[in-house]
Design a protein that fits this description.
- The protein is mostly beta strands and 117 residues long.
- The chain is built from no helices and 11 strands.
- Strands 2, 4, 5, 6, 9, 10 and 11 form a 7-stranded mixed beta sheet that branches. It has a 4-stranded antiparallel beta sheet with strand order 1-3-8-7, with no helix packed on it.
- A hairpin with a 4-residue loop joins strand 7 and strand 8.
- It is globular.
């Protein structure tokens, strides 16, 4: 199994920045892709950004140019740098790991990001 623990959320003013971290432990060697998702009140959980084991990244259109996903394999940590935040970015942010052999998804507990306008 894989355990994920997010940190770095909080309250920030519109236009500000935050960096989220997701520390992974357990069967790290089985992790294929990692991603950040978010869920706002009354809305479905959505993909924010993803990164493959080879370093390829993809982003939701709403965050392109403002958010950057990265992974430090030596530290077993995933990051999400968020700049130019707006109230629309307010949500609980979750880290997800997808493993191979077998394919399973693991989720962190989430971290709250609140952007005040």
């Amino acid at each position: 199994q894989v355990q994920l623990v997010e940190s770095g959320g909080g309250l920030v003013q519109a236009g500000g920045s935050l960096r989220l971290s997701c520390a992974a432990s357990g069967k790290i060697f089985s992790i294929d892709t990692l991603g950040w998702y978010r869920q706002a009140p009354g809305k479905q959980r959505e993909l924010v950004a993803g990164i493959s084991s080879g370093g390829s990244t993809n982003y939701a259109d709403s965050v392109k140019g403002r958010f950057t996903i990265s992974r430090d394999n030596a530290k077993n940590t995933l990051y999400l740098q968020m700049n130019s935040l707006s109230a629309a970015d307010t949500a609980v942010y979750y880290c997800k790991a997808r493993t191979f052999g077998p394919v399973d998804d693991y989720w962190g507990q989430g971290t709250q990001v609140t952007v005040s306008s």
